[in-house]
Amino acid sequence: MRLKLFLLLFVFLAACQYLPSALTKDDVDQYIEAYKKLAEISPELEVLRTKSGSISVFTCSACKARMETSVVSAGYRSLESFMVMDLRMSYTMRYVLYLELTQLVSEAGEDIPIENVCSVQNRNNLSEADRQTFDDYCGKAVLYTGYIERVSRFVSDVVEYIVSKADFEIVAESFDEIHSAITDPRLISDLSRSGGGGWDD
User: Fold this and answer.
1) Rounded CA gap, 193 and 142, in Å?
2) I need a labelling partner for 78 at 20 to 30 A (CA). Which of 3, 35, 126, 166 fits?
3) Residue 148's pLDDT band (boundaries 50, 70, 90)?
4) Domain count, the chain
5) 59 Cβ partners below 8 Å, 6+ apart?
6) Is 45 domain-assigned?
């Protein structure tokens, strides 16, 4: 694919010391394990959030403490280090979808801004079979974008991070496994990428 697509800048949490030079399969496995543990404690997080009167687990001190215990048991050094990885994975997952979509809808060599890929016009130019794939990819892209925006509201310090080709490749290989973990229906809504409706709602 076009090299410049791999040089897109994304916003991530500060604390770059937590970011390895490139994601590995071990990073992916650890991330999935952390989400499994978060799914298990989500009913408890909901109780803690409600008792605290907080609008989100990210503004609930007791929730964050419980989440930290959970992700540390999965191998992370802290909740902060997990959140760095969470945003990194989310941006990379969304970019995997973007590249798949541009291959589906663009002419050879044409670049389409990420915000313009999922359009009714692009969908109408596709075959019926490709429209189903388009709807699936765009629906997932909307969920990832919503999650990134939701989590970023609770992040104070940010840095720019370049999504690398190495990150893209390892995440693309494990995309379905990662997506399954982070759309687990047991997850509290603040952590889930699940949602209703279509990409064009």
Assistant:
1) 9
2) 166
3) confident
4) 1
5) 154
6) yes
